[in-house]
Amino acid sequence: MSHEAYAGADEGEEAFPPAVVDEQPIAPRIVDLTIDSRALRARTKVRLILPKRFYADARRRWPVLYLLYGCCDDYTAWTRETDIAALTANTDVLVVMPEADRVGWYSNWWNHGRGGPPGWETFHLTEVRSILERSYRASGRRAIAGLSMGGFGALSYVARHPGMFSAAASFSGVIDTRFRDTPKLLQELVAAHGRDPLALWGDPKKQEWIWRVHNPADLAFLLLGTPLYISCGNGKAGPLDPPGQPDDPNEVRWNAMNVEFAKKLRFLGANVRVNLYGPGTHTWPYWQREMHIAFPMLMRAIGA
Q: Which InterPro entries match (predicted)?
């Protein structure tokens, strides 16, 4: 049984295509879209950063950079917490930052075998993509990056949709959802936000196959050939932390996961740059720094 069998999505169905019901300028080059999504059975948001020449060069199609946030944030995170607008100001790239719920895990939820919403994977990769190509002159050249839960999303999407993305980056990513006690932690996190933890991918043992077909570590062989950037701190206070910052147990945990994942990628011969940079917590200053490091690679891959 493939993931499409429980995708709450109706992928490819044209009778009820997604629609932009509102477009709100937020700042120079920054636009918020409200999209009526069939995959979600709801209206939700996507933030765009337009290329500087978007309006002046009306015939051009633009390469795309998807940016995914982590738990337990929202689609405004990248522009609120980083200098991504300034970083992309002189680059011909369309930046896309979609809503994904606080604990959506970039997946079409299993819902105990019933399928149905939320279909985040379909929303991002079918509905948003079609809107970008139809109305915002997006090209077929795409890169993707994310942090924490979004690092999972970036690598899971690349593995599950071969050829859709030309490069990917994960910062402090939860990139092995079956690592040690991670299944229990993820289920507790989902439950803490009022969601049914078994509705996401089912029980980690009874529905192990669903966990596996979403998990980047289980799908590592499908990442071969795609340029990757993988980074993580070790959880100890680092140069971008305030004085007296205690150790960060989340980054300690994800560091162990990223160390093992990096070994696996290298063993398989992946095209990967790994930056396990030592001291650093699970916080935005490090992710902004890592975005600056990964950015040239991501842009080269999509010709931006």
A: AB_hydrolase_fold, Esterase-like, Mycobacterial_A85_antigen
Would you say how long the chain is, in residues?
Answer: 304
Backbone torsions φ then ψ of 280, nearest 5 degrees: 160, 140
CA separation for the pair 117, 213 (Å, rounded): 19
Domains detected in the chain: 3-44+52-302 (3.40.50.1820)
Query: Alpha-carbon distance 195 to 95, whole Å?
Result: 29
The amino acid present at 193, given as its one-letter code, is: H
β-pair type (167-171, 228-233): parallel
**DSSP H stretches of helix in 229-278:** 249-268
DSSP state of 241: S
Question: What pLDDT, in 10s, does the model give residues 121-136?
Answer: 999 999 999 999 999 9
Provide the residue type at 256 as one letter. A
The span from the CA of 212 to the CA of 197, in Å, is 16
Separation of alpha carbons 174 and 152, rounded Å: 5
